[in-house]
Design a protein that fits this description.
five-stranded antiparallel sheet
């Protein structure tokens, strides 16, 4: 009886151990199924033997039985599955873990997502590797947040560069314009009685040009400031490009007469676009001003149009000194750069062309520049399909 009693106690103890194991397995299963991270286990052939609920959901499966014995190739595109398989082999063959590796995947809807994956070898008896355990965490939102931060940093850098350039303009160009204006007016006020008519005419013309350049600078600064604050209002309307160009050209009568330049407007007389008149005036005015500045005396500037099925382009072409290659690369960027004097030593501020670029962007125009095969530069302003189609409405 005593022997039987001991045997029964031993059997009871064994059953208790089995029950404890069942409880432990149940506890572990409940634990991993309620973790937000995706947990999976693969055998030595890289086949799934265990997956928690989070991982099953990512695979598009409802139960463990749907996944058991399958591989990544059954759930992922080949190129993504192959990358995962190679990592699995590395862990199983070398025993080295892969920790916090960023992996690109596609979800069930085909959306791009990113995961942070750790894989460690799974050891069996005699410390032999029998598979691996993996933990995967979705970091898509974190990647988006980091990208947003990087984008914001780039914006802030650009804003700071623009601010620094603006301060530079205010500190140098405005100072230079005012000093010139003060010097000319002082000379006129103190010596007018002893000046010849020719000298007075020359001095008054210099004052006029100085004040006009100062006014143009201030206009560009105001426009640039409004752009940075997002206060530019775009109101598209039908515009006859030939007549519009004629009106802009009239602004430069004194400038072209002083240099003996002829501006030829060969834009088709019936060519129209649907665009914001104010933005277009600022852009075309700056392009013509640039052409006049770099044109030789007694030369010409051609303003022409080209019509294609889905676009309209106008070109402002001068035959002057052209733009040096070093300046051409950063021509439309608002940052500190070397400025080039005009043919009559005219100064530029470096604001006009970057302003043209930004106004073109918000109006969906395309502005560009290229060196002519001979002398001079050609600036192109292209109106896209939207500016043509809206004419028909």
């Amino acid at each position: 009886m005593e022997t039987l009693s001991k045997s029964l106690q031993q059997i009871s103890s064994n059953y208790l151990t089995i029950d404890q194991l069942k409880d432990e397995n149940s506890f572990i299963r409940i634990l991993i199924d309620h973790l937000p991270d995706r947990i999976f286990c693969k055998d030595i052939n890289c086949k799934f033997v265990l997956n928690n609920k989070a991982h099953l959901k990512v695979l598009g499966s409802k139960s463990q039985f749907e996944v058991l014995g399958k591989t990544d190739y059954d759930f992922r595109p080949v190129e993504i599955a192959e990358a995962s398989y190679q990592d699995d082999l590395r862990v199983i063959k070398t025993g080295e873990k892969i920790e916090n590796k960023e992996e690109y995947i596609l979800d069930l809807e085909g959306n791009e997502r990113w995961s942070l994956v750790t894989k460690v070898p799974l050891f069996g008896v005699e410390k032999k590797i029998v598979g691996l355990i993996g933990i995967s965490r979705d970091i898509t939102q974190r990647k988006k947040d980091l990208e947003a931060i990087r984008s914001k940093n780039c914006e802030l850098t650009a804003i700071n560069e623009a601010k620094d350039r603006l301060f530079e303009v205010l500190a140098t160009d405005l100072k230079s314009h005012f000093e010139s204006f003060i010097s000319l007016s002082q000379d006129l006020s103190q010596n007018y009685h002893s000046m010849s008519i020719k000298k007075l005419q020359s001095l008054s013309l210099s004052l006029y040009n100085s004040s006009k350049n100062l006014h143009k600078l201030l206009i560009n600064l105001v426009e640039w400031s409004a752009l940075q604050r997002g206060e530019v209002e775009i109101i598209p309307e039908k515009i006859n490009l030939h007549d519009f160009a004629e009106a802009v050209i009239s602004e430069f009568i004194e400038d072209v007469e002083g240099k003996g330049i002829q501006i030829v407007n060969s834009i088709s007389e019936d060519l129209k676009v649907f665009a914001d008149k104010h933005s277009l005036w600022i852009i075309l005015s700056n392009l013509i001003s640039n052409a006049v500045k770099f044109s030789y005396k007694n030369s010409r500037i051609d303003i022409s149009s080209f019509v294609e099925s889905s676009s309209v382009k106008i070109e402002v072409k001068d035959f002057g000194i052209g733009i040096s290659p070093g300046l051409m690369d950063n021509l439309f960027l608002f940052k500190k750069k070397e400025t080039q004097l005009g043919t009559e030593n005219e100064h530029g501020t470096g604001i006009g062309l970057p302003l043209c670029k930004e106004l073109s962007n918000i109006n969906k125009f395309k502005v560009s520049a290229q060196k002519n095969s001979g002398n001079g530069t050609t600036f192109s302003l292209e109106f896209t399909k939207v500016h043509i189609d809206n004419l028909k409405k």
